[in-house]
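ok so for the tutorial part 2 we go from a plain amino acid sequence to predicted structure tokens. step 1 is just haveing the sequence, like this:
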Amino acid sequence: MGKGRYTTRTFVLELFMVIAAIAFIFPIYLLVAISFKERSTWSRNAMSLPLEPYLGNFERAWNDAYLGDALISSIVVVTGSLLILTTVGSFAAYFLARCRPKMGTTLYVFFLLAMILPFQLGLLPLYQMMRDLGLLGSPVSLILFHAGYQLPFTIFLYTGYIRALPRAYDEAAKIDGASDFQTFRHIIFPMIRPVTGTVLILNCVFIWNDFMTPLLYLQGSSWATVPVAVAAFVDQEITDWGIVFAALLVGVAPVMMLFAVLQRRMMEGFAGGLKA
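step 2 — the prediction. this is what the tokens look like for a chain of 276 residues:
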């Protein structure tokens, strides 16, 4: 009888959610608002709406911070890493989910342990290995690093989702004469698109925002990624927040657009993984 009533508890919960939403949205609003204002305008009132959008900040940030080259570098690194992660991670997860329980559990725990270990433990050996292979200063070094580092997490997401899929699909494919690879490619992989969206978003955000590894592996090269380029630009233009915020906005825009496109897949992926 009381299920449909609007109680004080409901009001407090809604009020809390509104405050939390404002706390998350307000920094983004400031980032956008100041980016479209001249210095004389935002210095008087930073929180006001930009009634007459000023694009000079973006033009200077784009030219002075070399954001065009940085965006290309970041896109190359992220795309290469995601291709390896989705291909290798999904197929490895299919093997773990469908192989013998004892073997699958042992390997699964092994990958979970790899998620716990911080990458700083292998930072120096990995750097020396990249140097010996002659890959320092090349985006290939970052692609290999991120693909290896994020692979356990990717396998963790895929395995939980694939385990929730009935084995009847695999058995029906084998009756029709399909191999394991054909079963995975034509039946299983199309069915795990929701978790693939989750994998793409989470890995993309991590790889795109990584600052330490590109700074170390690409030092002195022309392949600086967006975080490195923006950080160097902020050090130079710390007094003009309009230009700095414009550079930051350009840097986060690709990830925000990807999230807007794949957020539905991400929610479906989380729901499917929880069922597992």
